[in-house]
Amino acid sequence: MAKIITMGEIMLRLSSPGYKRFVQSDTFDVNYGGGEANVAVSLANFGHEAHFVSKVPCHEIGQAAINSLRRLGVRTEHVRRGGDRLGIYYLETGDSLRPSKVIYDRKDSSISLAKAEEFDFDGIFRGADWFHWSGITAAISANAAECVRQACISARKAGATISCDLNFRSKLWTPEEARSVMVPLMEYVDVCIGNEEDAENCLGFKPDADVSAGNTDACGYEGIFRAMKERFGFRYVVSTLRESYSASYNGWKAMIYDGMSFHVSKHYDISPIIDRVGGGDSFSAGLIHGLVTSMGPAKALEFAVAASALKHTIPGDFNAVSEAEVVALMNGGGNGRVQR
């Protein structure tokens, strides 16, 4: 299997129990997670040598975050220790007509203050096959964005494929700020992943499709995919297509463009959604697994969509499924019957 590096922020997640609102809760459920950490967990589950690069405080909460990854097989020897804070996010899970809510408390977290010279990126990427990062990491601070840039340079020197989940977050930066940072970083990216909002806010590309009105016809994306590939030289352009009928019922599919043809995945109706946080990260991990194991773009896309659909049924950030379980769903095993 492949040696895959991810880099980003792992956070303490405090969730109101069940479907309670924040103002109703007097306790919180504790989990750990974060974009690239979630990707690393999925890849470890699929049998890869998955490494997570970050920085966490040198205290028990920082250690608990690292332990949450180690127990699931993620390699953490490149996580630096120091700083005062592990980022926190609060999650209120929505249902039916009431959307989920996230409140961030991550200012001055250890990774946001980390400097690129703290990491031996050439050593980290020695022998690596793949590097994955997201726009969330680039958004948390100028320091973190520079860490991403230096990591990309070392990954490119090592011959690793580089993927980016654009992952625009309006609570972290404006579209103008995002484009000023993300557009220059695209020169290093081989596989660009995002949805229509990400592509517009991070790169300035808007599909000819009104997704908010339920129009996820792939033909509305073909022009933007071609333009993005021509502008940045991506090997693959990938978009997830979510139909949000309610907080607990979504339609889910994706498409990929490889410069010659477009592939549109099977469509999944996901209801009820247990936890959609980490759904995009499980998609990215599934796509990486499919491409790095030479499934080809169409089959890799199907694997990614199935992996992500399964994540929507699992509480917490991490997608606790195996390759065999994803393949079973791909092959039509989604009836929910008890497996004996």
Describe what this molecule looks like in 3D.
By secondary structure, this protein is α/β, with parallel strands linked by helices. It is built from 12 helices and 14 strands. Strands 1, 4, 5, 8, 9, 10, 11, 12, 13 and 14 form a 10-stranded mixed sheet that branches. It has a 4-stranded mixed sheet with strand order 3-2-6-7. It is globular.
Defining traits:
alpha/beta; 14 strands; 340 residues
The coarse silhouette is: globular
Q: Which regions are unreliable across 5 or more consecutive residues at pLDDT < 50?
A: none
List the secondary-structure elements in sequence, H or E: EEEHEHEEEHHEHHEHEHHEEEEHHH
> Cα-atom Rg, whole angstroms?
19 Å
Oligomer: single chain
Beta strands, count: 14
- Average pLDDT, all residues: 94
Helix fraction by DSSP (H/I, runs of at least 4)? 25-40%
Distance, first to last CA: 30 Å
| Biggest sheet character | 10 strands, mixed
User: Structural class per helix/strand content?
Assistant: alpha/beta
Beta-strand share of residues: 15-25%
Q: What is the overall number of helices?
A: 12
In short:
With 340 residues, this protein is of the alpha/beta class. It has 12 helices and 14 strands. The longest helix has 16 residues, at 142-157.
How are the secondary structure elements laid out?
Elements: E1 3-7, E2 11-15, E3 29-33, H1 35-45, E4 49-56, H2 60-70, E5 79-81, E6 88-92, E7 101-105, H3 110-113, H4 121-124, E8 130-134, H5 135-140, H6 142-157, E9 161-165, H7 175-185, E10 191-194, H8 196-203, H9 219-232, E11 236-246, E12 249-257, E13 262-264, E14 268-270, H10 279-292, H11 297-311, H12 323-330
Parallel strand pairs: 1-4, 1-8, 2-6, 4-5, 8-9, 9-10, 10-11
Antiparallel strand pairs: 2-3, 6-7, 11-12, 12-13, 12-14
Helix pairs in contact: 1-10, 7-8, 10-11, 11-12
